[in-house]
């Protein structure tokens, strides 16, 4: 327990200090979404239908941005070897690092998403579901990303390969997440899509640490 | 009790790096690991740390076998590689406190005193010199008690005073019944820990380049047996 808290505290410190990835995702999100009205015009009737998808794609790309350093930084300075030898199981370590990534990257995205929804004229009833679907879906993005980060840990400039590996895995999360918001915006019942999204997230949260830890073991060899 | 390596072999990318390595370290003894560049010193230490899988052979630490009980084997050893395993953005103190918490160690005091880190505790690691980083990295050894130390070139970038501090730390570790295997090209004053039966350096000879790995672990394509 003490070891787990130490890992979390260290991840937060590293993310917030210079060179950490905490500000990166949120800055990207806040820059990207307001560009959409410039691109397709300010007409609310045209913006509102694309708002849920735009917000979800923006959040997805933003959370991808800082993922390539998730294990790579630790691998370069030798920390990963020592972490692998620590009493903490590698699966637990991966889960903690992915959790810290979500709290420093995903959670801020959830917090600013409603404000960005305003710039896209997202209809009123959709806001609670936007927040709920991002809160339920973004942890899955961080945990799936951990698998990609573990697979590309030994590769210089592995960021692009990471995106190629991980983006297809993000598709189901994107579909159900955006679907819940679209349904709420259109006056339909968003619950079925939201429940599928939550179930998918839980499935990923349960399995991804094992997959990522196994990938890391192969990379350490 | 003690540490024993029997007939250890390891292959990397289809090439045999270690072949039939065997030696023992009795309790309270430190042995140097010597061999020319490319003899496989780093590979041997990584295998013994449990980071690489051997293709054959066994290592046994206080009765716990590497292959059969990796957890029980691993909880008794500390490994220091080429890299210092420090985060440049954090201070020396933050780095040490993290490792202490992770490895269930006690207060930083003894480790800080042994490697003279008191003036560096609040300095970010990126502002430290290579030798200062090395000392901070080695201090990790003293944060939590471990029976066996595996040190890969620990003297690199250390000045003579720091090398003496390292040697003193190894002597104190062995005086308490600990064991150490140290890959280094420098003469290291190990005192009584380096004397007596079963002490002396472990010599590692490079495996002939022509000797290709065979067996289940060797890649059949690279070893040529595939054709």
TrEMBL record, chain A:
Keywords: Cell inner membrane, Cell membrane, Cytochrome c-type biogenesis, Membrane, Transmembrane, Transmembrane helix, Transport. It is found in: Cell inner membrane. The chain crosses the membrane at residues 21-41, 47-67, 99-120, 126-153, 160-182, 194-216. It is a multi-pass membrane protein. The keyword Transmembrane helix applies. The keyword Cell inner membrane applies. Belongs to the CcmB/CycW/HelB family. PANTHER family: CYTOCHROME C BIOGENESIS B-RELATED, HEME EXPORTER PROTEIN B. Required for the export of heme to the periplasm for the biogenesis of c-type cytochromes. This is Heme exporter protein B. The lineage of its organism: Bacteria, Pseudomonadati, Pseudomonadota, Alphaproteobacteria, Rhodobacterales.
Automatic annotation (TrEMBL), chain B:
Residues 3-226 form the ABC transporter domain. The keyword Oxidoreductase does not apply. This is Heme ABC exporter ATP-binding protein CcmA. Pfam families: ABC_tran (PF00005). One of its GO terms (biological process) is cytochrome complex assembly. The keyword Lipid metabolism does not apply. It comes from the Bacteria.
């Amino acid at each position: 327990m003490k070891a787990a808290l130490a890992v979390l505290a260290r991840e937060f410190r590293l993310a917030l200090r210079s060179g950490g990835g905490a500000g990166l995702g949120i800055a990207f999100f806040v820059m990207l979404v307001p560009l959409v009205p410039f691109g397709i015009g300010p007409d609310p009737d045209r913006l509102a239908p694309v708002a849920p998808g735009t917000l979800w794609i923006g959040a997805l790309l933003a959370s991808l941005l800082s993922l390539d350093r998730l294990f790579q930084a630790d691998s370069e300075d030798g920390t990963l070897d020592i972490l692998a030898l620590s009493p903490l199981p590698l699966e637990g370590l991966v889960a903690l690092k992915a959790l810290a990534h979500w709290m420093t990257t995903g959670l801020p995205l959830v917090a600013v998403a409603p404000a960005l929804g305003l710039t896209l004229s997202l209809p009123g009833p959709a806001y609670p579901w936007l927040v709920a679907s991002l809160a339920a879906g973004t942890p899955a993005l961080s945990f799936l990303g951990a698998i990609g980060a573990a697979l590309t840990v030994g590769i210089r400039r592995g960021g692009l390969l990471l995106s190629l590996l991980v983006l297809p895995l993000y598709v189901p999360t994107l579909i159900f997440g955006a679907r819940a918001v679209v349904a709420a915006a259109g006056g339909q019942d968003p619950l079925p899509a939201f429940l599928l999204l939550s179930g998918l997230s839980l499935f990923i949260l349960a399995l991804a640490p094992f997959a990522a830890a196994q990938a890391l073991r192969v990379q350490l060899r | 009790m003690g540490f024993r390596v029997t007939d250890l072999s390891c292959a990397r990318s289809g090439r045999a790096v270690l072949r039939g390595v065997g030696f023992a370290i009795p309790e309270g003894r430190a042995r140097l690991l010597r061999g020319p560049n490319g003899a496989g010193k780093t590979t041997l230490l990584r295998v013994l740390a449990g980071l690489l899988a051997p293709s054959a052979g066994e290592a046994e630490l206080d009765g716990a076998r590497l292959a059969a009980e990796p957890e029980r084997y691993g909880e008794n050893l500390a490994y220091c590689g080429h890299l210092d395993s420090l985060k440049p953005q954090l201070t020396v103190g933050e780095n040490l406190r993290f490792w202490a918490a992770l490895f269930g160690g006690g207060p930083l005091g003894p480790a800080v005193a042994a490697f003279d880190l008191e003036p560096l505790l609040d300095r970010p690691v990126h502002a430290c010199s290579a030798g200062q980083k090395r000392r901070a990295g080695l201090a990790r050894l003293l944060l939590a008690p471990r029976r066996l130390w595996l040190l890969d070139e620990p003297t690199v970038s250390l000045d003579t005073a720091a090398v003496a501090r390292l040697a003193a730390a190894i002597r104190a570790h062995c005086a308490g019944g600990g064991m150490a295997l140290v890959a280094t090209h420098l003469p290291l004053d190990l005192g009584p820990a380096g004397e007596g039966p079963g002490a002396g350096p472990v010599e590692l000879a490079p495996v002939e380049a022509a000797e290709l790995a065979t067996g289940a672990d060797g890649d059949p394509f690279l070893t040529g047996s595939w054709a």
